[in-house]
Amino acid sequence: xxxxxxxxxxxxxxxxxxxxxxxxxxxxxxxxxxxxxxxxxxxxxxxxxxxxxxxxxxxxxxxxxxxxxxxxxxxxxxxxxxxxxxxxxxxxxxxxxxxxxxxxxxxxxxxxxxxxxxxxxxxxxxxxxxxxxxxxxxxxxxxxxxxxxxxxxxxxxxxxxxxxxxxxxxxxxxxxxxxxxxxxxxxxxxxxxxxxxxxxxxxxxxxxxxxxxxxxxxxxxxxxxxxxxxxxxxxxxxxxxxxxxxxxxxxxxxxxxxxxxxxxxxxxxxxxxxxxxxxxxxxxxxxxxxxxxxxxxxxxxxxxxxxxxxxxxxxxxxxxxxxxxxxxxxxxxxxxxxxxxxxxxxxxxxxxxxxxxxxxxxxxxxxxxxxxxxxxxxxxxxxxxxxxxxxxxxxxxxxxxxxxxxxxxxxxxxxxxxxxxxxxxxxxxxxxxxxxxxxxxxxxxxxxxxxxxxxxxxx
Length: 459
Ligand code: S3P
Fold this sequence. Notes:
- The protein is α/β, with parallel strands linked by helices.
- It has helices at residues 35-47, 61-72, 108-119, 139-147, 182-192, 210-217, 252-264, 283-290, 335-342, 364-374, 411-421, 443-449; strands at residues 17-19, 27-29, 49-55, 76-79, 85-90, 102-103, 124-128, 151-154, 162-165, 174-175, 198-203, 222-226, 231-236, 245-247, 269-276, 294-303, 306-314, 322-323, 348-351, 378-381, 386-389, 403-405, 428-430, 454-456.
- The strands form 6 sheets. The protein has a 4-stranded mixed β-sheet.
- It binds shikimate-3-phosphate.
């Protein structure tokens, strides 16, 4: 049977689960494909001329939502029986107006990058998402995209659902995003593909560069001018993009949870194969080394323009560190995992410059702090900082009953607190693990295969 990328993005029934103290975690795992790279692989191949094949695509709810939207827009995106995906692209500027609403579920990357693409197609489309995505700010992309000539109509503030009218004759811009965001950068560069002239994004803080790397795989010229203060990234419109064979490496943001679990378990070591080691994604791994983690990387090589390698991590004591603001962009999705690791370190870990966590799938700063407090961990927070007092290697949560953490439709909150349960005295129950399918389908069975005591459980 062929998968057409059609996906139900309505909320599935919640699936609570409880995790308990892990004496030992050990084994080698193949992790799912990188979410950021998977979205981009589907989008760029839809804009290329010819047939792209993609192996290792992440088949999570978020990425399937992108596949579904691109099919609605006239590209042909489908899965073959062997798990490879095949995309027949329509060429730059060749997408057509969708007949129905584009529902991208929980996926912020799908929403913002697709808005970039749609902004410079002469069409009208309506986009929506789930209850979490409908709370997330879109002005960060609609602002600059409106400067290129697109029009947007939101019913509430800058939130989804919205209608986009793409520009018939878009104009190129030079734009310096006020927040460090790869989604904003990518939305503008993707809009620039169908815009005559040079579109430039100026970054003061470098963010993940998967769009730039992958555009080059499709034969596009992307110009980068670096100074110590900023990077200017320029793409000229109407370049021909030629189909290629792509392979998606494993997701370092998913690896983060397996690594965190290995560090928190009483004993053992895990190996995760072929993980993307793009230097703009590996901030967590640098911080863990600073905390004294037994963490190393081997077999480094390149896949589809991205550095990859095998990660080996062993359980052991950790010391608290200060995590400076300059690391935020390279580990923005890893703070929930690092927060639960810090809860068992020796000393107080301080995170600075993390205000962006407030506009992720949930207000992560608040949800992490509330969850840790429920687990008996001392936490202090401000507008854009957090301090966590670690237990010095002792189990957290000693009230005699499992702590119940509400995940607020946030996959990374669900995974983080299941991981914290592995270092708890009485267990941690999360109200919903179904949302984990957003980025890491099969997380619970994979953790169980390493020896993690995680069980589906009624609340
Ligand atoms: C992403 C960029 C980041 C990250 C998100 C994926 C991407 O968001 O948090 O999960 O694929 O470009 P921001 O651009 O909002 O920082």
